[in-house]
Amino acid sequence: MSLFSQSVRHATLLRQSFVGADGVRVATCAGCDKHIARMTASGGWVKLIPFDFDHRDEQAHGGGHTLDNCQALCSGPDTCHAAKTAEFVALNAKADAQAGRTGQYARRMARKARGERPLIPQHKNAWGKR
Ligand SMILES: [Zn+2]
Q1: How far does the centroid of ligand 1 lie from the alpha carbon of residue 61, in Å?
Q2: Are the C-beta atoms of residues 30 and 74 closer than 8 Å to each other?
Q3: Mean pLDDT of 10-27
Q4: In whole angstroms, what is the distance from residue 3 CA to residue 64 CA?
Q5: pLDDT single digits (tens) 31-90
Q6: Rg (CA), the chain
Q7: How far is the CA of 51 from the centre of ligand 1 (A)?
C-alpha cells in the first residue's frame, strides 16, 4: 500500500522517466534502471513490471509522503524494493537492540521487573563447587 498521493506518484514516475526513440515516455526503477512503466497517449501509466513507491527516508526516521521523499522501485523477490526492505528491517532490529528495547539486556530487565531470578546466575563461582 502506498501512502503517497496520486499526484506525487505521477510526478515521481515523471521524474524517473525518459522519452525513447519511439517517442514513448518510459519510467525506470530508481535502483536498477529497469523499465517499470510507460506513459499512455492519455497521460496515464501502464505497469511493465511490478514496482512500489518507496520512502527514500523511511517513515520511522521522520520521512514524509512528499515528492522529494518518494521513489519508484521494482518490487518482488530479489528486486530493489526487497533489498531495501531487508536492509531497513535489519537496521531497525539493530537500533532496537542498541536502545535496549530487545536483546539480552531487555529480557534480563523484564525478568527483574517481574521479580523473577535471572536465567543465568550472575555471581556464579568461577571455580565451580566450593
Ligand atoms: Zn530495480
Answers
A1: 23
A2: no
A3: 97
A4: 9
A5: 999 999 999 999 999 999 999 999 988 765 567 889 999 999 999 989 999 988 888 788
A6: 24
A7: 8
How far does residue 82's CA lie from ligand 1's centre (Å)?
A: 9
Ligand 1 centre to CA of 34 (Å) is 6
108 CA distance to ligand 1 centroid (A)?
A: 42
Of the candidates 70, 57, 27, the one whose C-alpha atom is nearest the C-alpha of residue 45 is 27
Q: How many CB atoms lie within 10 A of CB 4?
A: 20
Cα 53 to averaged position of ligand 1 atoms, centre (Å): 12
Tally Cβ neighbours within 10 Å of residue 51.
27
